[in-house]
Amino acid sequence: NHSVQEYGSDLSYERLTQLENVMCVAPAAVVNSLSVNAFVGNKASQELVEPAEICSICQCEYENGDTIMSLPCAHGFHHVCGSKWLLNYSKLCPICKLDVVEQHEG
After folding, report:
1. For 39-71, how does the pLDDT look when each residue is reduced to its tens digit (9 = 90+)?
2. What residue ranges define each of the domains in the chain, with the CATH number in brackets?
């Protein structure tokens, strides 16, 4: 992986095309492979590090029947929120910054 800092101010066309190949979001195959469980009462899954009562992405309380996505780091989010985050914004957990793609491949 190459960062903009690595290239400094030498951002030629060739360097920019190399940056294009840097994956910042998670592929759908990785997102679709993550564990999803129904929220019941005050717990979503035994897999979560610290069962929370709100989604850290949308800041809404979990309700019975909500689907909760568990990342490899054991942080959980609404399935829709977690999927949107990973597919559109970042491949990193929004709480601990664990690289979800690296964990999936490793």
Report:
1. 887 554 555 545 568 899 999 989 989 999 999
2. 23-105 (3.30.40.10)
